[in-house]
Design a protein that fits this description.
Length: about 220
Amino acid sequence: MADFVQAFLNAEIALASSHLLWIGLVQTLLLALLTVPLGAMMGLLLAVLSTRKTRWVRWPLVGFIDFFRAIPPLVLLIFLYAGLPFGGIDLGAWGAVALGFLLNTGAYYAEILRAGIESVPRGQPEAATALGLRRWQVWIFVVLPQAVRNVLPDLISNTLEVVKLTSIASVVALPELLYQARQAQSITYNATPILVAAVIYFLLLWPCVRLLSRLENRQLAGRR
């Protein structure tokens, strides 16, 4: 037991590596705060456009969404970071990670929101139009509020995945939380920084997990 505590629960090493972990935490939060809002806005735009009946608009968007949902985020990230420079485009670690996460996250948000939009009964937009609301008013005041409410658990779940996804940025040496924890581990030859990083991830995401469970239970209760 003493060996386990020394290897994984060393308070002295946790304190000594706290400054590295703090830097990584800040980078992780910045990535999430950049990716989630921009990805949601991109997803909303794609979802609205993909519901259009015009095929030359809808099908390319559906293909775009399917492609970035299907391609593994790690493969996409490595291509953007290591592949684009051969074409004369060097985004750097931050640019490659931000763009890769934005494309992946935006595609998932788009599919979720599209499903939410299609779950709104068609008679409601038609009734709103008959009452004199303009098209943009119908979307803002009738369709989107109901669409978001219908898929809110899925939106929160996807947001959780985005925060966890930031850990793969370590493969391009972006100093996010996992990368910094591994750096501290290599310096101290001890796994305590990795365990501390795991605890930090848990503390960040657990409130959202509880909120997600409550929303799912509420939806299930509403269907009974």
